[in-house]
Amino acid sequence: MQVRVIYFGMLKDAVGRQLEDVQLQEGATLGDLLEDRIRHTDVIDNFRKVLAFAINQEYAQLNDVLHDGDEVAMLPPVSGGMPRCALVREPIDGQQIADGIKSAEDGAVSVFDGIVRNNTRSRKTLFLVYEAYEEMALKQMEVLVCEAKQKFAVREVAIVHRLGKLEVGETSVLIAVASAHRAAAMDACRWLIDSLKKTVPIWKKEHFVDGAVWADGEPFPEEIRADAKLRAGGVPAK
What we know:
Elements: E1 2-7, H1 9-15, E2 19-23, H2 30-40, E3 52-55, E4 58-60, E5 71-75, E6 85-88, H3 94-101, E7 108-115, E8 119-120, E9 123-132, H4 134-152, E10 156-162, E11 164-167, E12 171-179, H5 182-199, E13 202-208, E14 211-214, H6 226-232
Parallel strand pairs: 1-5, 6-10
Antiparallel strand pairs: 1-2, 3-4, 3-5, 7-12, 8-9, 9-11, 9-13, 10-12, 13-14
Helix pairs in contact: 4-5
């Protein structure tokens, strides 16, 4: 049988599409569909705990049986709640994000709040514009989350980056790390922002009173640079 799946909000951006038709066995449940989609698009797993579902415009449970021609909507929270990695075009609510990852077992939440300042290298800044290779950026952010949790033994991480036009004083990137111990949370937070700046495909254009320029990015790490791969293959880098 075939059902149509519709993604909304941040989930739509993360998946990279809004609609898809899915083939399932007769008698499959909504839970079966969810697991099938996670196998094909693993970023959906990051939303599992915050999703609601609707079948033919009625809220549904994972044990509900699907039928040929059903329309299934996967719904992120309409207010509050957020997946651990997101690219957004609206102002970032840092307190909401930090509160959203807290748990009774945590002894600390460390937060990095990157803010648009009013000058760069003695030039007055009017505003910034961020753009990203969005699908790849989200995947790389997820990679950083997984690495941070393993490297620093922290319990949870959230990374939210703003895209589009940002005014002076607005948050461009918010990283929150929850852990049993403060040292791990703080170390992970510092490592995450440093790594994000080097590996996640997000670019910043700075608009000044006397012109605009793309900000100089930090060099890619050696292991992902194209010239490093050429050297490894015996071809000299130019």
